[in-house]
Write a structure and sequence with these properties.
Blueprint (H helix, E strand, L loop, with lengths): L1 E8 L4 H11 L5 E8 L6 E8 L2 H8 L2 H13 E9 L8
Antiparallel strand pairs: 1-3, 1-4, 2-3
Helix pairs in contact: 1-3
């Protein structure tokens, strides 16, 4: 299970957003967190978190921690997108 949160951060709020990312990256039943920053817009970030099971992801989505992250993203960001996927397919090139 994959959870992706993409935020276009308000320029003066970058420091606060980094603190929220640090909170998000603390272990809580996940296989890891990746943080991506757009090259052409340095204030756009995507957090990609791989969960070991749907149950663990659902527990996280019902948690206060997730509510905090979403609330902070809404306050600090201009736009917020949250995407949940069952799988990511790797393409061989």
């Amino acid at each position: 299970m994959i959870l992706m949160i993409c935020v276009e951060v308000k320029q003066p709020k970058l420091k606060e957003f980094m603190q929220v990312m640090d909170t998000m990256m603390q272990p809580s039943g996940s296989g890891g967190v990746s943080v991506y920053q757009r090259i052409d817009k340095e204030n756009v970030f995507c957090l990609l978190k791989d969960w070991e099971s749907r149950e663990r992801l659902d527990e996280f989505l019902d948690s206060e921690k997730f509510e905090f992250i979403v609330g902070a993203a809404n306050v600090l960001g201009e736009t917020v997108r949250i995407i949940k996927a069952d799988q990511v397919e790797e393409l061989k090139i």
